[in-house]
Specification:
Strand content: 25-35%
Number of helices: 12
Oligomer: single chain
Radius of gyration: 25 Å
Low-confidence stretches: none
Helix content: 10-25%
């Protein structure tokens, strides 16, 4: 056992673990360690995606030299003040090769000085005598830590409970050479990106491919959730809708049985006239996603699981609901906004990790949330909001999840020139709702929570039908009906939302027109600040 007790032990040196380590280093906190089972950071990307093309976009040529704005179109970089640590410097490819991510993460770890111990695979996490955790690696070395942050990602395949599913070849181990499937009938179970990525790879050599699953396909361009089917993977849809041998089956696989040189699959359709049907395939491939692996935790600190046991249950601080001081970062943090925002992906969780770091600083080290002071007037606050929403990447990527929060301290009456106003960036909405941002020297009376959001029914309509998805551009009176991404400002007073203001939608995402955006926002802020008895 090591002699010291660390403040933080981070499990996993993938993007999230490295991001948190870099932030700790930047703050001068050295009492942490990252344990990584592989001999390089980001080892996940050595295997996945199996067909080696990332679907996270990379756009170096934006026409802007604003690093914050450019992160909107850079989904692979981690957060750093060093311009050399931008993934966009590694390639011009819009969808890069996965091997580049390995190189980038190794460079990031080296440049930031992240304290990583490689070839130290964690095999057991337990409660330590006297408090904290005992974390043991495969060599038998035990580390003690006051807090543990799990950043291992969803590392285990999710295997649905289908009789005979053991006969299917899993996405993580199946061959990827199309020649291996020559003239074969193939069933792919799953309707996500891994399933379509696989189908696209095999279309040229197979006799036919069927994709099966109980849910309808959801297109990312419609839901705005980037984990749904992306256009880069949807060539297969043409072959189905244009009747080119392949098909998509809506329903449930009831069983898989060996049948001579292939497999007999019993399928229950959701919408067709047949109730059940037996279909024959040469191969069955399982592309049903991944889940969290809780096997390293003993009974003293095993976290509860949710969403078909795929994720640990978490609080608004990304802390285990039933294991205090056990936190989760990276892909695992998407449990809080599952299929609603972007916490499952680097371009989302890099900001969630930064928020987690600030939460830990506030909770354990009495460090207030970073804030800038400003005049407590509608005009000054509106200018601050408009400046941020026109360039922020965090609120853009983590829509509806992260917010900028303007707080005004006071005595309970109308705002005065003596009031203290502060601007806090990138606060998780649910965290603010539960814990607030008051400090002894800044007792908050008014708070304005600024988010970027899509309309509440944005995923229910055809996004290419402009007659139903677009309100008139820059029309103030229709701003609340906007389906596309736009700023929303909520006034919190005495523990409740007292008023809501939508900034009018804008094609170029520039919410700075004096008469359309600024003046209505100033009026809203002044009205809220000077209201009494709310």
């Amino acid at each position: 056992m090591t002699g010291e007790t660390l403040d933080y032990l981070i499990i996993g040196a993938g993007p999230a673990g490295l991001q948190l380590a870099a932030l700790l280093e930047q703050d001068g906190r050295r009492d942490y360690l990252v344990l990584e089972g592989a001999d390089v950071p980001g080892a996940f990307f050595a295997r996945f995606p199996r067909h080696r093309q990332l679907i996270s976009i990379n756009k170096p040529h934006t026409g802007s030299d604003d690093p914050e704005l450019n992160l909107r179109l850079d989904w692979n970089s981690l957060l750093s003040d060093d311009p050399a640590l931008r993934f966009t410097r590694y390639t011009d490819r819009y969808f890069p090769e996965a091997d580049l991510m390995l190189r980038y993460l190794a460079d990031f770890a080296a440049a930031t000085g992240a304290r990583v111990r490689y070839r130290s695979r964690v095999v057991r996490v337990s409660r330590a005598t006297g408090g904290g955790f005992a974390v043991t690696d495969q060599h038998g070395t035990t580390y003690r830590a006051r807090r543990v942050v799990v950043a291992t990602g969803v590392s285990q395949p999710y295997v649905p409970a289908i009789p005979g599913v053991e006969h299917a070849e899993r996405y993580d181990t199946m061959p990827v050479d199309p020649a291996d499937f020559l003239d074969q009938r193939v069933l792919i179970i799953g309707k996500g990106n891994s399933a379509f990525e696989t189908a696209d790879n095999l279309m040229e050599t197979t006799t036919l491919i069927h994709l099966a699953g109980p849910s309808s396909i959801r297109m990312a361009w419609r839901t705005h959730y980037v984990g749904h089917l992306r256009a880069v993977n949807n060539n297969f849809l043409d072959t189905y809708q244009l009747k080119s041998a392949n098909a998509i089956l809506d329903g449930t696989v009831r069983g898989i049985e060996p049948d001579g040189d292939g497999y007999r699959v019993t399928f229950s359709f959701s919408r067709a006239d047949e109730v059940t049907k037996e279909l024959h395939y040469d191969r069955v491939l399982l592309c049903t996603g991944f889940r969290f692996d809780p096997s390293i935790f003993d009974e003293s600190c095993r976290p509860a699981l949710v969403i078909n046991d795929r994720f640990p249950a978490q609080s608004a601080e990304w802390e285990s609901l039933d294991v205090p001081d056990l936190f989760f970062a990276g892909t695992l943090s998407q449990e809080r906004d599952f299929k609603r925002s972007t916490s499952g992906f680097i371009h989302g969780f890099r900001y969630a990790v930064r928020a987690l770091h600030r939460i830990l600083e506030r909770r354990y080290h009495d460090t207030p949330w970073p804030a800038e002071k400003l005049d407590p007037t509608g005009e000054a606050m509106a200018d601050a909001v408009i400046a941020r929403v026109n360039r922020t990447s965090a609120l853009w990527q983590q829509f509806g999840v992260l917010a900028d929060v303007l707080t005004v301290a006071g005595t309970g009456g109308p705002a005065t020139a003596a009031a203290d106003a502060r601007y806090h960036e990138e606060v998780p909405v649910e965290y603010f709702t539960r814990y607030g941002l008051s400090t002894p020297d800044h007792p908050v009376e008014h708070a304005f929570v600024v988010t970027l959001e899509y309309g509440p029914q944005h995923d229910q309509v055809d996004p290419f039908d402009v007659s139903v998805t677009r309100v008139a551009q820059d029309v103030v009176g229709q701003a609340h009906d906007a389906a596309y991404l736009h700023p929303v400002v909520r006034h919190h007073h005495q523990g409740r939302v007292a008023a809501v203001h939508h900034l009018a939608e804008n094609l170029e995402n520039q919410w700075n027109r004096p008469d359309v955006h600024r003046a209505p926002l100033v009026a809203f802020l002044d009205r809220c600040l000077n209201a009494t008895g709310n």
